[in-house]
Amino acid sequence: MEHVKQRQAFGRPLATFEGVSFPIIEHFSLLEAVRLLCYKALWLRDQGRSSSKEAGMVKWMAPRFSTNAIRDCIVLHGHYGYTKDYPLEQRLRDVLAIEIADGTSQVSKLVVHREMMGREFLPYNYRYYR
Q1: Which of 20, 38, 80, 108 is least buried, going by the fewest C-beta atoms within 10 A?
Q2: How many CB atoms lie within 10 A of CB 110?
């Protein structure tokens, strides 16, 4: 946000343009929603209740939304955004590594699917393949 507040185009800060500020607000909103869902999962766990569904949602949403936000930040920085002069290219690699190392988003979605629909409706349920 500091970059778009300081960087000027057409005699105005980039932050004054809706095409710049609205995507930032959208990403901030989505990431805040994921943060709150994460807190809910942690709260459920503290209460001794199942948090598998919420944790599964957070595990696929956080990297996806973070990747999208970082990508847009790189674009807002122009060619410099993808250089080692800024930490953005490293952040993108970090987020992608988290998504891979912590289990793929498809596995997390299967966990959510199982919790919402029940085991008998999992896509790999063997009884439907006879």
Answers
A1: 80
A2: 16
Run means of pLDDT, 10 residues per run, the chain, 130 residues: 89 92 95 97 97 94 93 86 86 87 81 90 67
- Reported as type and span, the H/E element at residue 13 is strand 12-13
Q: Phi first, then psi: give them for residue 12, nearest 5 degrees.
A: -135, 155
Which residues are CB-contacts of 7 (< 8 A; sequence separation ≥ 6)?
13, 14
The whole-angstrom separation of Cα 25 and Cα 16 is: 13
Determine the pLDDT at residue 52: 95
How many angstroms separate the CA atoms of 37 and 119, rounded? 23
Give, in degrees to the nearest 5, the angle at Cα 81 between 85 and 86: 30
> Mind giving me the DSSP string for 89-112?
HHHHHHHHHHHHHT--HHHHHHHH
Q: What is the pTM of this model?
A: 0.78
